[in-house]
Amino acid sequence: MRKLTIWLDDKFRETTPTLLRSLAPGILKAKGVFETMRVSNGKIDLLKAHLQRMSRGLKVLKMGTAPFKKKALSPLMRQLLRVNRLKDARVRLMVWKEGRGLHRAIVVQPLEKLTAAQYRRGFSVLLMKGHRRQTPVPVKSLDYAIFREGLRKAREGGFDEALFVNHKSELVEGSRTNIFLVKDNCIFTPPITSGCLSGIMRQQVISAARRLKLRCAVRPLTAADLFAADEALLTNALLGIMPLTRLDKQKISTGKPGPVTIRFSKKFRI
Question: What global pTM score does this model have?
Answer without folding.
Answer: 0.92
